[in-house]
UniProtKB/TrEMBL annotation:
Annotated source species: Piscinibacterium candidicorallinum
Descriptive protein name: Universal stress protein
Span of domain UspA: 2-140
The family this protein is said to belong to: Belongs to the universal stress protein A family.
Recorded superkingdom: Bacteria
Gene3D superfamilies (alphabetical): HUPs
Signal peptide limits: none
Species classification: Bacteria, Pseudomonadati, Pseudomonadota, Betaproteobacteria, Burkholderiales
Database matches in InterPro entries: Rossmann-like_a/b/a_fold, UspA
Pfam families xref list: Usp
């Protein structure tokens, strides 16, 4: 099964990864993992002032800082990991890649905000649930 892991480097990502490695039997021995890191675009004014090269370097550096400990974690557990960085709305981009990449499962860590707070603030996990055509495992 192809499994898409939504990662942002937060404590919630770490909890999700810890859960994942303690429940590998649930994923099957043929599981293929891909970590997606979705970064918000810089404000237009800042991007124009900085220039494309600097903006690209900013996103690349942020991606490397986020993904390096995750790659190390997977290596330590003897698991292979593909990675992908996308710039855009996290919920929309995760759901789009899940469909386009024909993933069988999306795994995401959640902050676990209460329902009223989530309605006001929005939530990547809620957006993925609403937009995704494949099963989603949310780890709180």
């Amino acid at each position: 099964m192809k499994i898409l892991l939504a990662v942002d480097g937060s404590a919630y990502t770490k909890k999700m990864l810890a859960y994942l490695v303690t429940h590998l039997e649930m994923m099957g021995s043929e599981a293929e993992f891909t970590a997606i890191n979705v970064q918000l675009p810089l404000p237009l004014r800042a991007a124009r002032a900085a220039g494309k090269e600097m903006v690209d370097r900013f996103h690349d550096d942020a991606f490397k800082a986020t993904i390096a400990p995750i790659e190390k974690f997977f290596g330590k557990h003897g698991l292979k990991l593909a990675t992908k960085m996308v710039i855009g709305n996290p919920g929309d981009e995760i759901a789009a890649l899940a469909k386009k990449g024909k993933f069988g499962l999306v795994v995401i860590g959640s902050h676990g905000h209460g329902s009223v707070k989530s309605l006001v603030l929005g939530s990547v996990a809620q957006r993925v649930l609403a937009s995704c055509a494949v099963p989603v495992l949310i780890v709180r």
